[in-house]
Amino acid sequence: MLDPRDRVALADLVARYALYADHVRYTSLVGLFADDAVLVMPDPPERLEPVHSFTGRDEIAAALRSLERFPRTSHQIVGHVFDPGRENATATGHITCVAHHLDEDESGKPTDVAWHVRYSDAYRRESGFWRIERRTVQIDFIEKKPVWCWRD
Fold first, then answer.
1. Which of 6, 37, 64, 65 has its CA 20 to 30 A from that of 54?
2. Intra-chain end-to-end CA distance of the chain, in Å
3. Where on the phi/psi map is residue 129: left (φ > 0), alpha (ψ -120 to 50), or beta?
C-alpha cells in the first residue's frame, strides 16, 4: 500500500507538471523527472499512440519545448490513480488529462485544440522526493472548438 502522504505527494507532482507546462517553466517542469527518465510521446494528429521516446532531462526538455508553438495551454487533470510499484520507493500512476492548446484554424481564427490524454507513469522516490521515472502519453481523441477571446 502507498502511504497517504505518498499519494498526496504524487498528486502534487502530477499537478505541478500541468502547472509548469502551462506557465512555461521548463526548468521546474524538467526537474520533476528523474535524471534518467524516459518520456514517450505521440505525434498528433497523425499518430495518437506513443511513438517517440526521449531519455534524460535534456532530451525531455527539448521535447516539451514543442508546447512553445501555442500562445497558451491549459492542462486540466481530471483523474488520477496511484498504485505501489514492485520495488520499495516506487509507484505507478494512471492520469487522465484534458490538455487545451490555443491555436489558429486555417482562416487564422483562434481555436482550442483539446487533447484527451492518458498518462501512464512510473515514479520513484529520490532523496525524499517523488520523481517521474517514465511517462507514456497517449491521446484518445482531439477536439477543435472556436475561441471567442483569450488573455495574453
1. 6
2. 44
3. beta
User: How far apart are alpha carbons 114 and 29 in whole angstroms?
Assistant: 21
pLDDT, tens digit, for every residue of 95-147? 999 999 999 888 989 999 999 999 999 999 999 999 999 999 999 999 999 99
Burial 67-84 (b: 16+ CB within 10 A, else e): beeeebbebebeebebee
- Dihedral angle computed from the Cα positions of residues 125, 126, 130 and 135, in that order, rounded to the nearest 10 degrees: -90
Residue in the structure block whose three cell numbers are 535534456 = 58
Answer yes or no: pTM beyond 0.90. Answer: yes
Q: Per the structure block, which three cell numbers stand in for 19? A: 502547472
> Dihedral, CA atoms, 93, 139, 43, 34, nearest 10 degrees?
-10
- Residue 35 CB contacts under 8 Å (≥ 6 apart), including other chains: 56, 57
Map grid coordinates 501555442 to a residue: 70
Residue-level length of the chain? 152
